[in-house]
Amino acid sequence: MATDNTRMNLPPLVSIGVFIATVVVVHLLYQGVIRPAAEAAIAAHGSGATTNLWVILKDAEQQACMTLGLFCLILMSYKYYRIVTKEEPVFTFDYLRSFPKEEALNVDEALAFLEEGESAKNSSVATWINCLRRYKNTQNVQHAADAIRDSVESLAAQLEAGNATIRYFIWAIPSIGFVGTVRGIGSALAKAEEAVAGDIAGMVDKLGVAFNSTLVSLLLSILLMYVLFHLNNRQDEMVLKTKNNCETHLLTHLHK
Known about the structure:
It is found in: Cell membrane; Membrane. By secondary structure, the protein is an all-alpha fold. It has one domain (about 10-255). It contains nine helices and no strands.
């Protein structure tokens, strides 16, 4: 059976497993490295440690943002890997090169050849198969060209829908940062009496939670949006090259 190369997303169970693993890894990193380093910096420098990287990262909101950010990067890396290893090598490939272009194409043989191939589920090959099926049913080249258009539009919609989870998490990360801001400001106000009495350490620490969570979440969302932008460009390029490949090679066979 042909391998399903159109899967651009991690399978649901694998995705859940990856998310759980990401949560565990980030938690261990925080417990073993970041929070001990932050506590050491605060003990050594007091309120002067507010600009220390470990202190900026130490709170629960930042941990949640880092977890979601790492998970998004894994999802996007997998998509990028699928495009580079499974899709790009066949962008401009003529799958019917063994069929003479000087002769009329035997559609039944061509369909059997494509459907039995190892790459039958590849998005580019699937488009060729849909086109040939439409041509077989209608004997009309224009209808076959319409099938190409419909297939690539479906592919574009599938790729866009596959990014919905990533877009949600990128949206959620700044929201978590703002939750940290509200929590930090609320906790800082609870320390107002101590600050009036001259002990500002508690208020400074809580205000640090407020500002650091927003800082980390916004920087992380900017980075993730940049990576997603390039992923979207690569996916759009894949769709366009799939369409051009069909029009350049497949329709040449059908016009004979």
